[in-house]
Amino acid sequence: MGFWPSKREIALYYLLKEEVGERFNLGEALSAASPYYPRKAALSIIRRLEKLGLIAKRGELEYELIDIDEWLRGKVREYLEARRRRYSSSS
Fold first, then answer.
1. Which of 16, 56, 79, 91 lies in the 20 to 30 Å Cα band around 45?
2. Is the distance from CB of 64 to CB of 56 less than 8 angstroms?
3. In a domain? residue 58
C-alpha cells in the first residue's frame, strides 16, 4: 500500500466532506458517491481511506473524516524522522 492517497481517494474524501460532513454513515457515503463511482468501487475507496487513516470507523456503519492537515502533519513528521535516522546512521 502506498503512502499517499490516489486522486480518486482524495476526490472521494473531499466529496464526503462537502456532501455529508465530518461524521456520516456508510449509506450516506455511498449515496453521495453514487453519481461518480459504482458501489463496489466506493466501498473499496472508503476501506482504503480507512487504512490510510483519513477516515476513522466510529461504530458498525459510522465513520468520521480525519482532518487532512492533521493527517498530513503526522505523515510529514514520520517521514522526516525516518530521514533523520537514516542520515544520522550513515554519517
1. 79
2. yes
3. yes
